[in-house]
Amino acid sequence: MLEASTSGKGRLLRPFFVVTAAFSLAVNILLLVSPLYMLQVYDRVLTSGSIETLIWVSVAAIGLLLVYGFAESGRRQAMILASDFIARYYGPAIVRSELERSNRGVPNQPRLSDLSMVQSYYQNGLALPFFDLPYTPLFFLAMFMIHPIIGSLGLIGAVILILVTYLAERGSRTSVQDTKKAERYAEMFADELSRNKNAVVSMGMDARLTARWQGQKTRADSLMNRLGSIPQIFGSHARGFRMMLQIGALGIGGWLVLQQELTAGAIIAGSILLGRALGPIDQSLAGWRHITKAREAWALLQTLDVEAINEKMQHTPLPQPEPNLTLKNFQIGVPGTDNPLLPKFSVTLTGGEIVIIIGSSGSGKSTLLNTLAGTQAPLGGTARLGGRNIHHWAAEDRGRYIGYVPQDIELLPGTILENISRFDEVDPGQVVALCEAIGVHDMIVRLPGGYDTKIGLGGLRLSKGQSQAVALARAYFGTPAMLLFDEPTSNIDELLYSRVNQSLQRAKEADKIIIIATHDPRLLSVADKVMLIMDNDVKMISQPDYLAVQMRLKRNSERQEKTA
User: Which residues pair with 403 in a beta bridge?
Assistant: First the structure.
């Protein structure tokens, strides 16, 4: 039961629960209208033959049932408002935690699907039977007032149904966790297939990988069917047992009438009261599959520190940092693990310097840039830009003062203008001026909608070169003190390369720190320093010294070839 979690974050929902409980009190009291009406009609109206009494009793019952309708609508509306509140409270925090999570495959982390599951729990009224359960003794009391035997029959039936509910809960407890893991794994596998669809289709792996996904989905469906069958089996038996109880109540009521211990109206009233008393238990069993999944999702949402995430979003903006970068005992690791990728090293860079990172594939170039950009934390040491630890900055400050072009370009659904301006409200002329300065304006205006061209969901699909040009403009946007480029020239033509080269020179003259990871030897011409990653070590040398070493190595190689 989610309502039991009213400590800590659950207290935020207490106003909605109080309103729902108040309406539930009215609803359950007014549920007595129908059996009381039956008693009056059978035991007073039919014996007296008074039409006037029948009219007044009927008018009163109809009026009270209208009030019942308003109360039932009110408590359902309170549950919908609770669902909306949960979405507003947890939704932004879940999205933010997803963006900040360095390892996307981490299990047991709250996701938007968990939020939807909890919302559905409240929107569909699955919580209402738990608000009705406290009033079940009221109906049993009314049944005992009709006759002790009728009341005892209902009490015994309730105990048996509660036992059935407990067994259903025990049987589905472990299945929920296993099912969720299997579902998420199949979902993540499908996402990876979609992300790498070009390689999958072009290399003929689609049939085999689809079959593998099908196997994972079949396992998840099997666990889901098992999870659903447990409450279904118990629920079917419970419904059959409940019908037997109502028949028993009618039969015992008929026998008591023959013994002149009960009136005819009390037979119908007793059967209705029995149904009302056992209704919440029966409804809980019918929706137990969804209740157990919502309970697991709610438990995951409770692990999210929403207050801490919101505090990080509400911060005092940092001033423009001085263009100096100091890495002290800095160490990076394999993403998502604590395994070091490089030994600790220390480096100091100042504004107006262009550093080229050179190393073999997998040496750690991209991971180093990711860490400097703040998308993952270092294993040790500090990275200070302008004297302040980058990894203690708010994300908005890092985005404002660090421009970053990752190796895998990811543009977001929206227009070209919105992507370059990072979805901020800015003067379009500012964006146009920037693109003209770095040489991508002509490429953008040739697109069907120019700067207003929609990309992403239902929009235009850009080529890799076009995407890279937009990503470069996005990195330059604003007032970055440091620019991080990962293979910025890998997908652009010679014309755009020359313009990128010119933009790097202008950024250097603007006293910015520029760090570039690349395999493109052409970029060495603009470099001041070279960070060499090789043999599990990091060395910083000047560009002339690096070129001199490369020249000596080339001459030695040529000399050896001649002597051979």
Answer: 483
Q: Give the containing element (helix H, strand E) for 225.
A: helix 206-258
Q: Token pair for residue 457?
A: 């969901």
Q: Give the span between the Cα atoms of 293 and 562, in whole angstroms.
A: 74
The rounded distance, in Å, linking the Cα atoms of 208 and 187 is 17
Q: Which two tokens stand for residue 490?
A: 């890998």
Q: Specify the pTM.
A: 0.68
Tokens of 132: 């009705």
CA dihedral 294, 297, 302, 303 (to 10 degrees): 160
Distances (CA, A) of 360 to 167, 279, 337, 345, 518: 59, 69, 21, 18, 10
Q: Are strands 354-359 and 529-534 parallel, antiparallel or unpaired?
A: parallel
Q: What number of residues does the chain have?
A: 564
Q: CA-CA distance, 508 to 491, in Å (whole number)?
A: 23
Residues 6+ apart with CB under 8 A from 493: 465
The pair of three-digit structure tokens given for residue 186, joined into one six-digit string: 């199949």
Which residues fall within 8 angstroms of residue 412, CB to CB, at 6 or more apart?
A: 418, 419, 423, 456
Residue 110's nearest CA partner among 36, 118, 564 is 118
Q: CA 402, CA 84: separation in Å to the nearest integer?
A: 36
pLDDT band at 502 (very low <50, low <70, confident <90, very high): confident
DSSP state of 13: G
Residue 195 is given by DSSP the state H
Residues 6 or more apart whose CB falls under 8 angstroms from that of 275 comprise 242, 246
Same fold, 2-310 and 324-563: no
Domain 324-563: give its CATH superfamily: P-loop containing nucleotide triphosphate hydrolases (3.40.50.300)
Provide the Cα torsion 497, 503, 509, 510; round to 10°: -150
Which has the closest alpha carbon to 193: 178, 211, 180?
211
Cα three-residue angle 372-373-376, rounded to 5 degrees: 80
Where do the domains of the chain lie?
A: 2-310, 324-563
CA dihedral 506, 511, 517, 520 (to 10 degrees): 30
252 touches 136 (CB < 8 A): no
Output 324 or 308, whichever has higher pLDDT: 324
367-387 pLDDT, tens digit each: 999 999 988 889 999 999 999
- Residue 288's pLDDT band, with cuts at 50, 70 and 90, is confident
Residue 519 structure tokens? 């395999």
Most confident range, picked from 36-45, 74-83, 304-313, 359-368: 74-83
Asked if residue 528 lies in contact with residue 514, where contact means CB atoms within 8 angstroms, the answer is: no
Topology adopted by domain 2-310: ABC transporter transmembrane region fold (1.20.1560)
Residue range 89-107: average pLDDT? 69
